Amino acid sequence: MAKKKQQLFECQACGFQSAVELGKCPNCGTWGEFLELTQDQIDTLKLTAKSSTNSKSSQSGAKSITQIEDESVERFSSNNEELDLVLGGGIVEGSLTLIGGSPGVGKSTLLLKIGGNLAKIGKNVLYVSGEESAGQIKLRAGRLNSLQENLYLLCEINLDAILHELSLKKFDVLIIDSIQTLYSEKISSAPGSVSQVREITFELMRYAKDKNVAVFIIGHITKEGSIAGPRILEHMVDTVLYFEGDSNRELRILRGFKNRFGSTSEVGIFEMTKSGLESAKDISKKFFTRNDSQAGSAITVVMEGSRPIVLEVQALLSESTYPNPKRASTGYELNRLTMLLALLERKLDLPLNRYDVFINIAGGIKITETAADVAIIAAIISSFRNRPLSKDTVFIGEVSLIGDIRDVFQLDSRLKEAKTQHFKKAIVPSRPLESVEGIKCFAVSEVAKVIDWM
Known about the structure:
There is one protein chain. Helices cover 28% and strands 25% of the residues. It is an alpha/beta fold. The chain folds into three domains: 1-43; 75-281, P-loop containing nucleotide triphosphate hydrolases (Rossmann fold), CATH 3.40.50.300; 285-453, Ribosomal Protein S5, domain 2 (2-Layer Sandwich). A nine-stranded mixed β-sheet has the order 8-7-9-10-6-11-12-13-14. The radius of gyration is 26 Å and the shape is globular.
């Protein structure tokens, strides 16, 4: 009797495997993404799993955690302050870093600039491009001042050819632009598929660990904001960084979402100039202005990692001509805005149900913490009453559902940054632990007290 052929189906969105074809993936919820793997692809998967198991066999056997020897992490600087900050202090030797972002945001520009910086200090850097020609890359490198002898270019999409080139010369850093364009001859599927990305990433990971080479991978993102292709890519790498920002604006934010060698709370802020992405030198003044006071504008201080940033919150209220007034927010969570509006209606009897409310965070930055709640309320009331607020005052504090103003973390650091930017007054939930000379603090415990101060 003939042996029954083995069948294996794989979701092209997340990599989930099933013995039968499914309409909806139980792992990621997408529809119609299951494809049947060929026998060659199944055999390659078995070989990959076997080699991965053999590489870990020498470390098998349980040990007490107190008997495990400490592993030292060797880092070197990228000569870019913002990137070093996001990576946790510098580039880790033998690490695998994924950088994602929308088209035109500056991924290739940043890594080509970093490659030039590292080549200046004697590092051998290989930049592999599967999308552009060598002439195009050299033209951009000249604009970025990255024409260095130790920076090598390779325009290739075949993984075997890339690995052969890596075997001919010792490199310290490898840059892949981009992972979706590469393919391996061991896999018959198209570039960017789950099987291709898994095989290529595994080979790059093994090369990085064996040769102690830092590898950077560029990944495109979808319209939903996630890395295009399989999610398995994010699980295999050591660090995942995302570029945020509009390609039409000069500021870009590099945020860490995964980092095995450091914290993910830090962000890097870059400025797009004619010579490429540069570390933003004076970022605070880019998010607020000291022009004449206008109704609906309030200043707050938020924390991005360990860095305090002074922001301008803008609010606009206009009488609505529809039964259901509109609420819109840019850079601030819409659900939290709705909560604050309901609180103002209940506690202060403001007829906001007859007004359209629009909130904007100047500079294009997104607020992810609650310390800006008091500034949002101050800007809304300022616009409602058409009375401008003092440009010398910052508003800091979290507002609860019962109308209390709660403490925020690192209040002292926020006030010191406000003092650096020459603010003279601060509305805060409590007195700071350390007195900040030159700035007068007004402690308020509830929303009504903020209104009285205004």
